[in-house]
Amino acid sequence: MILKPDEGPDDIRAKMEKAVASFDDQDQVLFLIDLWGGTPFNQANNLVKEHEDTWAIVSGMNLPMVIEALGQRMASDNAHDIAKAIVEPGRDGIKTQPESLMPKEETKAAPSNNAQPQGAIPEGTVIGDGHIKYVLARIDSRLLHGQVATGWTKAMNPNRIIVVSDNVAKDKIRKTMIKEAAPAGVPANVVPINKMLEVVKDPRFGNTKALILFENPEDALKAIEGGMDIKELNVGSMAYSDGKVNVNTVLAMDQKDIDTYKKLKDLGVKFDVRKVPSDGKQNMDELLDKAQKLVDEKK
């Protein structure tokens, strides 16, 4: 199954639930997922947490892994046993041409330049210049997923990912999923907006290079009006829901969204509209004009 550009987390979860419902044996389920931390992984992980004794996920899917899974299925109907058995064939299926490009041996990771002070830091301590840095502030209804964990994290080199959302901060399952989706060496936190406004005034975060994620433009506006000094917002994806119109393959808006973006623009905020770093930037004014026309036509 696939996640289409105009679909969101609920859509891929519904597809998974429908597929599982079609199985003769629903006690043993194994998900083969492309990216650890992507939207399909996050939704599968949510389902697996309800059946941890018998369901499993293996990420990094490739053809040798799939073939091995089919072969193992002939010998065992235990999802955990099959998951264990297919990891090595999946790794062995990674090859290069020329063969000389293959790593000869594993090397230890070099110490990270992003290391943060460990342990409790006394209140009032000034770290660095005492001001948190925003390497990227992004609006993305999917929050932390594969494109963020791989593309944007590598491009912007943050040492912390912070999801700023009142709704997500109250959702224990989503908070756990976000923390688990964080790339190696870059911890992820979920905080409500008011807590983030306290953080920006705390000099102990002076060495923090944060990648900020907002679920919607309304949260971004509230945070910026509250004191977050964000000059530019990367607009990544906004999932479709009832009442919204599809502006392009990844952005859906309603009148509230349009009005919010205009308020952000009035505050001097610039917009960088692209899903991943390699995409070309789109013109936000043109997208808002298109969204307004589509909303007006729908009335």
TrEMBL record:
It comes from the Bacteria. One of its GO terms (molecular function) is protein-N(PI)-phosphohistidine-sugar phosphotransferase activity. Residues 92-121 are annotated as: Disordered. This is PTS system mannose-specific EIIAB component. The keyword Kinase applies. Residues 1-94 form the PTS EIIA type-4 domain. GO terms for biological process: phosphoenolpyruvate-dependent sugar phosphotransferase system. GO terms for cellular component: cytoplasm; plasma membrane.
